[in-house]
Amino acid sequence: MRREDIDPRFFGDRLAYNRAVLVEQPRRWLVVAGHEARDDEGGIAAVGDVRGQLRLTFRRLEETLEKAGFALGDLVQIRILTVDIEAVTAHYDAVLDELAAADCRPASLLAEVRALSDPRMLVEIEGLAVQ
Q: Per the confidence metrics, is the pTM higher than 0.70?
């Protein structure tokens, strides 16, 4: 598989996302449904804490990817949905930290929605991974 980052965008000196990611001849695709900050018992964790929910949501994404034989760095697209875009942008360094640690450079979307499936959820992240 060959991967090419198209038109990378930076926040300061840190890669934030790519406008597009070209993947030629992938062997495997994984479409990842929306993930949220759920604790080990299935309840919403870090209620009212955007940073905490972002970090835990990335952990849950990573767990799902690993179960399918993928890594966070295999994500070529993520979509972050939030009910509070100002709070997420104020804590976007948490997203950048997670992506940088995994050498992950996805095409991405950050959008505010009116509601998520549980009123305690502040963010939901879905993605597409390829190998």
A: yes
